[in-house]
Automatic annotation (TrEMBL):
It comes from the Bacteria. This is Adenylate cyclase. InterPro entries: ANL_N_sf (IPR042099), CapK_Type1_Caps_Biosynth (IPR053158), CHP02304_F390_synth-rel (IPR012685).
Length: 445
């Protein structure tokens, strides 16, 4: 790993990527996009064929004229899309072996291979070169460290799988400790007390568990910064963690397709527009709800150009007080797969009910609700799991029914049957989804 290159990228990220206005940022994007397109056409057979009819548009820098791809297209054409001649079969073989042995160090010709989590139903595989690891490490350190790179930092990172990508952040001053989510809670408790991390990074469901251990006196740690990753950070979880450790809970929006967003000093999530270009495919423009289409400036091994994610983002309507020009988000709302479906009482058509509306309804129902999960099994059946003090259970259930009935009525949808079950969600290696849709579009039940 080129430590000098990491330092250069750190300095560029922390101090060099300054834009005085949006026009300057847009010019930067246009330059980076054109450079990326020219490289990709030359080195990726898939993109070369895909873009053959669009050479004039590419020359003019008209990104929006190019076709959009998604995970299904990327995996179907994996062998010819990547620029290092690695087959999907070979990549999956190495990645699955790493998952099985829990040894994540093997590479293919110095290319790191990893698996996406597969929350949308089908697992993907990604490739990252040593150069890309270096740039990623410098960028992450520049955006995430609570103080200078010259200070010592001890990072505890809870994830389903480790990666050479994460290990790239290690140096003499930064010690990186991977906590495997498959390990037992007792192992985590013991190691947390031993490591006493200055930076704690984990999915919010795990952060909440760690906060409960702190409250119970099982651990005694003093992190300088807490960062939520991999799952949607719910307000009630954020409040619980914040109250325990007396500090803001930050977020990193990182996925297979790129290092997409980080929180600023004010706790607002900003798209990393020095690293990626985002186009908004609005689902509800009035409320600022959109699906991101991303173009990553750093990815050469597995180019990401006009790639439609399955995530739902909500843009912030007002400027962030930190002064950043980068697009600010109100929140990451979940995945398109988990938009609930209502049936219109007027014309029987399907109506989208976004996770944020359901989340708000549950939270507004009662301050006594500690944890929840909402599952749409069919158009007419919704299951609610609540964790509340026993003495408040009946009133909470009644209020939840009232709030959800009001939401469905506001949308002029037929009110579904709502039933309750015990909150029995346990932490494991799968991501926690508090809003989950199991019914498919067009289903009549």
């Amino acid at each position: 790993m080129n430590k000098l290159r990491i330092l250069q990228q750190y300095l560029k990220t922390k101090y060099g990527s300054r834009f005085s206005n949006r026009k300057q940022l847009e010019r930067f994007h246009k330059q980076q996009i054109k450079k990326q397109l020219l490289f990709t056409i030359e080195n990726s057979p898939f993109y070369r064929q895909l873009y053959a009819p669009f050479l004039e548009e590419i020359e003019k820098g008209q990104l929006a004229a190019l076709p959009i791809i998604d995970k299904e297209v990327m995996m179907e054409h994996f062998d010819t899309l990547n620029t290092v001649n690695i087959s999907k079969e070979e990549a999956f073989r190495v990645a699955f072996e790493a998952e099985k042995t829990r040894n994540f160090s093997p590479t293919i010709r110095h290319i790191t291979v990893g698996l996406s989590s597969g929350t949308s139903g089908n697992r993907g595989v990604f490739l990252v070169s040593e150069e890309e690891q270096t740039l990623w490490a410098g960028s992450v350190i520049g955006k995430v460290l609570p103080s200078s790179i010259l200070h010592k930092h001890t990072i505890a990172f809870f994830l389903r799988a480790n990666s050479n990508l994460y290990e790239a952040t290690k140096n003499k001053r930064i010690s990186f400790h991977f906590f495997d989510l498959l390990d037992s809670f007792q192992q985590h408790i013991t190691r947390l007390n031993e490591v006493n991390p200055s930076i704690l990074i984990a999915p919010p469901s795990m952060l909440r568990k760690i906060a409960s251990w702190q409250q119970e006196g099982l651990i005694s740690i003093c992190p300088q910064k807490i960062i939520s990753v991999a799952e949607v950070l719910e307000d009630m979880d954020s409040a619980f963690i914040r109250a325990t450790f007396q500090q803001t809970v930050h977020q990193v929006y990182q996925c297979t397709e790129g290092f997409l967003a980080t929180t600023c000093s004010q706790g607002t999530l900003h798209i990393n527009e020095d690293l990626v270009h985002i186009e908004k495919e609005y689902l509800d423009q009035e409320n600022g709800i959109f699906v991101p289409i991303i173009t990553d400036f750093m990815r050469k091994t597995q180019p990401i150009i006009r790639y439609r994610l399955n995530d739902i983002l909500i843009e912030k309507k007002t400027a962030c007080s930190c002064g950043s020009l980068f697009l600010a988000l109100e929140r990451i709302d979940g995945r398109c797969d988990d938009i609930f479906i209502g049936r219109s009482e007027l014309d029987n058509r399907e109506i989208s009910i976004f996770p944020d509306f359901i989340r708000r309804a549950i939270i507004f129902a009662s301050n006594e609700i500690q944890q929840f999960k909402v599952i749409q099994h069919s158009l007419n059946n919704i299951e609610i799991k609540l964790e509340v003090p026993p003495e408040h259970l009946e009133s909470c259930q009644s209020n939840v029914i009232q709030e959800l009935h009001a939401l469905w009525s506001t949308k002029k949808c037929a009110v579904p049957h709502i039933f309750f079950s015990h909150y029995d969600i346990q932490l494991h290696d799968k991501k926690l989804k508090r809003i989950e849709r199991l019914v498919s579009h067009g289903e009549q039940i």
